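Is this the right way to post structure tokens for a design question? Let me know if I should format differently. Anyway, here goes:
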């Protein structure tokens, strides 16, 4: 298969890229990045992209499966408006081009609690993205909704505190549904989905990801 990744420079995206490069079922991987990453591999094609002008690279959006892992924190984005643009508007435009170009499968990294009707900004943003992509009617459409992710070398204080509390509760036999998920494990599940799932839409919630 030929796989495309948007968000390949994020924590989960990096792990996914590493897995796909080693997976014999994926013959070619195309990543779309803001600047060159310096990675070289016989299977890898890197497209330097202005994500505000996606039509300029639409001819490169061709393949068998699209992995959408793009995202950022509000702090990194600089404002809610910019975070909304990165999390919602960019992937929606990109996936619309992918659908137009005949890509049959999409794997979307969403989040626990995603709902277009949520009063929580982040959850509503993710929910509207899910609904927008669902409306494109890909032949196979898989959504992963993880909870807290364990990122190697994370410098986000909130994540470290939440991780510590959840690990403590888990050690007491509590909140197993919300146990922290390493990005490498999540990436393995993302890579597996297009190979084993049938057509149609599949929603994999956080308590089912470890089992998938």
């Amino acid at each position: 298969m030929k796989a495309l990744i948007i968000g390949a420079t994020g924590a989960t995206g990096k792990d996914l890229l590493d897995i796909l490069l080693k997976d014999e079922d994926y013959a070619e991987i195309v990543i779309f990045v803001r600047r060159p990453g310096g990675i070289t591999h016989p299977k890898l094609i890197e497209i330097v992209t202005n994500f505000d002008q996606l039509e300029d690279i639409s001819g490169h959006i061709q393949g068998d499966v699209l992995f959408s892992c793009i995202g950022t924190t509000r702090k990194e984005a600089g404002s809610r408006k910019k975070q909304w643009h990165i999390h919602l508007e960019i992937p929606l435009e990109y996936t619309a081009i992918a659908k137009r170009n005949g890509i049959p499968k999409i794997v979307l990294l969403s989040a626990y609690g995603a709902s277009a009707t949520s009063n929580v900004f982040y959850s509503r943003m993710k929910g509207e993205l899910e609904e927008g992509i669902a409306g494109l009617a890909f032949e196979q459409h898989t959504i992963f909704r993880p909870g807290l992710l364990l990122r190697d070398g994370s410098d986000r204080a909130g994540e470290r505190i939440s991780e510590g509390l959840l690990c403590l509760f888990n050690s007491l036999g509590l909140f197993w549904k919300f146990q922290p998920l390493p990005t490498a494990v999540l990436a393995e599940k993302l890579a597996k989905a297009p190979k084993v799932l049938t057509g149609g839409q599949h929603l994999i919630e956080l308590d089912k990801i470890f089992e998938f």
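Format looks fine. Someone answered above. Worth noting: Strands lie at 2-6, 28-33, 44-48, 65-68, 105-109, 140-145, 149-150, 181-182, 200-205. The chain is about 40% helix and 20% strand.
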